[in-house]
Amino acid sequence: MTTFDLEPLDSLTVTVLIDNVTDLLATEKGPVKRLIPGLTSESVQPSGVLEGGLALDTLLAEHGFSALVTVEKGGRKRTVLYDAGVTPGGMVENMRRMDLSPKDVETVVLSHGHFDHTTGLEGFIGAIGGQANLPVVIHPDFWARRRFVIPGREPFEFPSTSRSALLGAGFEITEDKRPSFVLDGSLLVTGEVDRTTEYEQGLPIHQALRGEEWAPDPLILDDQALIANVRGKGLVVLTGCGHAGIVNIVRYAQKLTGVDEVCAIIGGFHLSGVLFEAIIPPTVAALQEIAPSHIVPAHCAGWRAQVALSAAMPEAFVTPAVGTRLELIA
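-> structure tokens emitted (330 positions)
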């Protein structure tokens, strides 16, 4: 397989804009920083029940994921938005609270088509003035209609993203199953991830509409990750839900780039719930072998997987929370 020459970065910052959890008491460690709000005019909101009439304007947690990725190479800083969260305004509201500008975003990468990773594009479009004129990188299956079929319940069809809405907002949509660079070779989008482990078999209750018929769609092939290479530190792998399997994803990132050292793995690992608890032990064992310096199992990783990872990799483990910022400097 041809490897992709992912140029080493001088620095990389990943800021978690949306996650399932918020924690004002989360601790900082090394390159892991947290947003700690202070009582300034920019970080408060009116309150009728507190003495003084002011309350903290704290970050919002949602069942979804979004991250802002800022890279620096050759003295130039550039920014990518990876996923957008589950409500129209949650992501941009958190950006406001963190003093981050949506107008700094040059490219949008969407991990897959599920609505808890895309709905926040609405607020993003409004925040940048209604005409995006930005590249959006997706897999061709991104647009598929999907549903959950749980035995004993009515099927639940997910809201799907509107192609016409994104085109109408001025986005320049690129669909590709293959790996592709963004920001002139600074970051690599995996495209469709190779499935190589025996235990990462996808989501069995997931279906997609194929023509006129609903069909099993456990693999969710549009799942794609974002990869960076920080000089002297190794790969940073960012996932949305990790439907391809977090071990598959990281091994594929290593294969694509020819870089074995992994500095950080951040994002959804999709190990929550009874369907996935059985694969937590082999997943943890494989991640121990990969030995990332930092591991941030966010969004759909689930508390059982988080507990297992924190026990197995205590020095690498980072408690996930909205506002977490990983700052890596070569």
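The domain at 11-37+56-329 is CATH 3.60.15.10 (Metallo-beta-lactamase; Chain A).
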